[in-house]
Please model this.
Amino acid sequence: MSRAPGGLATRLQHIEPSATLALAAKAKALAGAGHTVLDFTAGEPDFPTPDHIKAAGIQAIHANRTTYTPVAGLPELRAAIVEAVNRRRRAAYAPSQSLVTCGAKHALFNVFQALCNPGDEVILVSPYWVSFPALVQLAGAKPVIVEAREEDRFLPDPEAVRRALTRATKAIIVNSPSNPTGAVIDHARLEALAGIAQERGLIVVSDEIYEQLVYPPAAHVSIVEVAPQLQGQTVIVGGVSKSYSMTGWRIGYAVGPQPWIDAMITLQSHSTSNPASISQHAALAALTGDQQPVARMREAFQQRRDRLVEGLNRLPALRVTRPDGAFYAWCNVSRLTTSASTLAAQWLEEAQVAVVPGEGFGSKDHVRFSFATSLDTIDEGLARLERWLTQH
Ligand SMILES: Cc1ncc(COP(=O)(O)O)c(C=O)c1O
Model:
């Protein structure tokens, strides 16, 4: 009988630590050693959590709301989540069809654990968020990668999805707006993807964590809005991390068919139990309170996006497709290198500019710039890259 090295479980042998977190840590270490690193690696807003949300968390502590909540989350929070989803998606989910989790990542973990068996295949579109393949593999299933082409603005190609189908295909992940490309999937493509899912009875995992960070004239639509008949086979994943600048509070959610949500609740009851009670009270304030801070952050992101994307596209060796959502610019560096990670290491060492190499997202030809950073950082980063490029 073969044993995993060091006694590790076999399911962890082929799973690498998150690439985004590793590069950010390296940049922080350099900054800690006194270098002025311009950090474009952030996967989180740089704004503080809005005051009224923080106050709700503090109030929860003072009011001793510090005990267990129901495993699936506070009833009022589940109601608020479903109310927001129903309003935005013109749907009619019941609060019982929702589950509050420790971040959207945890919701996704629960989804694949609850729905996938070894041998199942899950289609995901490349470039993909780094954790998608690992989350699928941790459930024993196999990620099947379908390329989205740069000429198509990184939007999924329904025909390519169709070609990737096998008898083992169980699910497809739809992530709009996308991390890392910022692509927002249009109505027609969603309709085509929905058609495939319906025809083949596929589970759709719709990761909508960036739904509120979409820059006009682009607009976000969910696959369940385009194809309401798909609600019975779709799990919507979302959360407060990105829109409300609450990454550290760790509150996400899943909304979907009752039996699937029930299975996830059972899983959660034996793993994490409820997400932190204090964070749940803060998330409730986020969803039900003043939405102006979200609009203000979105406007700031849009301004930064324009500055960064225009600046990068002015540099001859670089090329960026303008992202319509999220806060990432996916930059083609293939004229400079055959290895994004080598280039990212060079930029960090020689220009103290930190970006995330594309390999972890499925491309060695791209690096990811986050524009969840100040306009000053963007300006100075562009100036440093321009100098670096003239020297090389
Ligand atoms: C596409 C996508 N889904 C999910 C998550 C996880 O969000 P959370 O911090 O709420 O777990 C992220 C965070 O980077 C993301 O980019």
Q: What stands out?
A: The chain is about 40% helix and 15% strand. The two ends are 53 Å apart (CA to CA). The chain has two domains: 5-49+292-391, 67-288.
